[in-house]
Each structure stands twice: as structure tokens, then as C-alpha cells.
Design brief:
It is a single chain. This protein is mainly β and 268 residues long. It has a 14-stranded mixed sheet with strand order 7-8-9-10-11-12-13-1-2-3-4-5-6-14, covered by helices on one side. The longest helix has 13 residues. The protein is globular and about 60 Å long.
Length: 268
């Protein structure tokens, strides 16, 4: 008989809330071999690559996603269903279900972050400043939304990047000289993000998200598979999301309330 493991739900929901759970990541180089032998007709500089990325159509007011989700680490694996509702730039509601029962839920807005999980009967309510301090990395609403949509997590127009070409992917390396290193791999044909990585070398942490099976809808170009990996000295975890139902511009509701009797998680 299948059993729902609360740890999987907790880590899963936190990964989606934080989108950058580098607090529990391990420094691990991801090999991308060699320089492409088939370069695009015109080699572009970083500012042109970024401009093309932001020219991708994303014109919608709401987005509904139902996904098969698999969480795994070195101790367990868990298959669940994830329902993701997005009111663009305003709210994200994520519900994690096992055998049709809601086991965890998160509500995210630009000013607040809330989630609860059923097994331990616990919940969190706060804002991005407290959550960022807890996780050890800066978070905001846009980073979470961008991750789910297959867009660059950071606003690339506000940074400086060195570009290179690796296997038909433009690689953008953040030139900011600090402990946190960010790298974005962008397709040289359609300028979608294929992979993005954040590494904190000193702490031995790394977060990586990769995208595949892009599909062009009337409203937006969206990845249908999202693969999230986190690495840490104690091990690694992985979340695979398969978007099997996608709809735009429907009238969506965003119900969220913590069940009675749950214990609040206090971040100190």
C-alpha cells in the first residue's frame, strides 16, 4: 500500500515556494562539454540574447497547470499531483495532492508567503524577507513565477553577463563578483531558457532547474517538463514536474485557509 511521506511534501512545497533552495544545495559542477560546432548564423552579444529572451510571448492574465510531480532524495521517492494556479504578477496557489487528498498547500503573493502541510499539522505565514533570511538567499514573487513559466529567474536586464556558446546554447555567466554564482543557458534558436543554475561555492550549495518540451500556445510559450535539482553536502534532491493540463485566462479562485489546530512554524 502506498503511503504519503510528509518529508517529501515539505521539501516539495518549500522548493516551489523558495524556487532557489540553495540553503540545502551542494556545489557540484555540471559538465557541458565542448564548444558548439554548429553556431547560429549570427553570434549575439549578451544584451541581444537577453532582449530576444524577453521578446518571447507571455500575454495572459491567469494560468492553470495540473502536473504529475515526483520528489526524490537519497532516502525516498514520492509521486504526487500538483495543481498550480497563477494570477500573473499577483498570486500563485500550489496544492499538493496524494490519492486525491490535499496534503500541502502554498499561497504566494508579492508581499506574503504562506503554506501548510497535513501530516505534521504545521504551517508558515510570513513574507519574503523572513523566508529569505531563513533560506540564506534573496527571494521574491517574480523569481518563483519565472521559474514555473520557464523564464530566467532573475531580471537579466539588471545584471551584467559574459556570453559564450556551448552546444547551441548561449551561456550567460553573471559577472557579479561574490560568493553566489549564476549561470543561464539560453537556446540559440528560440531564446528560451533551457537551464539555470545558482551556486554558493563556499557553502557547497547548488540549485539547478532545467526545462524541456516547450509548447507554443496562443498566449505564451511554455515548457511542459520542469526538472529541479538541489545539491548539498549531505546529499541531493530532485523534483520532476510534468505539465499535463494547461489552460489560460480562465476565471480562477484562490482559496487558502489553514486548518484548525495546526502549529505555526516560527523562523528565528
Amino acid at each position: 500500500m502506498n503511503k504519503f511521506k510528509s518529508k517529501g511534501a515539505i521539501v516539495f512545497i518549500i522548493c516551489l515556494i523558495s524556487s532557489l533552495i540553495v540553503v540545502s544545495c551542494k556545489s557540484k559542477a555540471v559538465a557541458v562539454s565542448g564548444t558548439s560546432t554548429e553556431e547560429p548564423a549570427t553570434y549575439l552579444k549578451a544584451k541581444n540574447i537577453i532582449a530576444n529572451h524577453y521578446n518571447i510571448k507571455r500575454e495572459f492574465s491567469t494560468l492553470y497547470i495540473k502536473a504529475n510531480a515526483r520528489f526524490s532524495d537519497e532516502k525516498q521517492a514520492q509521486n504526487v499531483t500538483a495543481e498550480i494556479k497563477i494570477k500573473k504578477d499577483e498570486q500563485i496557489l500550489v496544492s499538493i495532492r496524494f490519492l486525491g487528498i490535499t496534503m500541502a498547500k502554498a499561497s504566494i503573493t508579492p508581499s506574503s508567503v504562506s503554506y501548510y502541510e497535513k501530516i505534521k499539522g504545521s504551517y508558515f505565514e510570513g513574507d519574503f524577507s523572513s523566508l529569505s533570511q531563513w533560506l540564506g538567499t534573496d527571494l521574491d514573487y517574480n523569481k518563483i513565477q519565472n521559474m514555473l513559466l520557464g523564464e530566467a529567474i532573475d531580471d537579466l536586464t539588471k545584471g551584467k553577463y559574459a556570453e559564450s556558446l556551448v552546444e547551441k546554447l548561449y551561456r550567460l555567466d553573471d559577472l557579479k563578483n561574490d560568493n553566489t554564482k549564476k549561470t543561464f543557458y539560453i537556446d540559440s534558436d528560440d531564446f528560451t531558457v533551457k537551464k539555470q543554475e545558482i551556486t554558493q561555492t563556499t557553502e557547497g550549495r547548488m540549485f539547478q532547474v532545467a526545462y524541456s518540451k516547450n509548447k507554443e500556445f496562443n498566449e505564451a510559450l511554455l515548457p511542459l517538463e520542469v526538472n529541479i535539482n538541489t545539491y548539498q553536502p549531505k546529499g541531493k534532491s530532485e523534483i520532476n514536474l510534468d505539465y499535463n493540463t494547461v489552460s489560460f485566462n480562465e476565471e480562477l479562485s484562490f482559496p487558502y485557509s489553514v486548518p484548525n489546530g495546526y502549529k505555526r512554524i516560527i523562523i528565528k
